[in-house]
Inverse folding.
């Protein structure tokens, strides 16, 4: 019986599971991490493709069942634990394939991005609205911190939509499969990543305000800085591209670094 408090909604349709596997672009040399294998339907398909498969399950009952079901698979390791505590740093290069609970989607993505040096890609089944935010472009309501953060580190592609009726039990909303390939280098040149993301988060924390108002904490001359990089101070944060945010952050960095 799926547990609601763990966000368990299971996929059984073999055609959909096969499409997810195809979207993950796996090879016989890959180490794959599956988050939340549940009853193990996709786990079997992954085990047939990957060189090594690590399936991490929080639910003790499902973990015990999986451990028994995959005892004969020499390339499969079943682990019980919280994905946010898993030591990804101990792995060599790896890919992630997962149908992850809606309530913990963003923390999982940011946790995985901490290990981007070894992480090759993420293929995730997530809430459709979250997937749309990840691939959103400037100018719309979906575009924000999540869009910029994921697009800075990855090249995301929304592969296909899964209707809510395909899951058991059925969630209230549709899902989407998104494939994110880790970038070797960011799409923009940033002098100080910490400052860059601080500018982005600050801007979107008050997204209804103009940039000059939302970024006022960065100095009284923020209007001049925005004008210096060709950004109208009256614009809203959701209209700026990643490149424009980078320009603003770089000018702020240079002004901070300049001698008095």
């Amino acid at each position: 019986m799926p547990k609601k408090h763990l966000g368990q909604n299971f996929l059984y349709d073999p055609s959909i599971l096969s499409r997810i596997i195809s979207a993950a672009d796996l090879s016989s040399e890959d180490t794959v991490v599956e988050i939340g294998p549940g009853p193990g339907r996709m786990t079997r398909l992954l085990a047939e493709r990957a060189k090594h498969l690590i399936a991490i399950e929080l639910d003790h009952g499902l973990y015990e069942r999986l451990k028994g079901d995959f005892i004969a698979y020499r390339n499969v390791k079943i682990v019980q634990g919280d994905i946010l505590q898993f030591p990804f740093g101990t792995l060599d290069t790896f890919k992630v394939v997962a149908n992850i609970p809606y309530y913990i989607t963003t923390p999982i993505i940011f946790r995985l991005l901490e290990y981007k040096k070894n992480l090759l890609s993420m293929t995730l089944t997530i809430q459709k609205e979250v997937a749309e935010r990840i691939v959103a472009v400037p100018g719309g309501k979906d575009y924000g911190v999540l869009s910029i953060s994921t697009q800075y580190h990855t090249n995301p592609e929304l592969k296909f939509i899964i209707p809510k009726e395909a899951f058991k039990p059925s969630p209230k909303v549709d899902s989407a499969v998104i494939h994110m390939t880790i970038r070797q280098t960011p799409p923009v040149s940033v002098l100080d990543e910490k400052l860059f993301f601080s500018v982005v988060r600050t801007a979107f924390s008050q997204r209804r305000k103009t940039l000059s108002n939302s970024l006022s904490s960065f100095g009284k001359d923020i209007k001049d800085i925005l004008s210096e990089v060709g950004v109208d101070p009256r614009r809203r944060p959701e209209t700026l591209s990643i490149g424009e945010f980078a320009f603003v952050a770089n000018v702020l960095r240079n002004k901070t670094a300049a001698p008095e």
The chain has a mean pLDDT of 91.
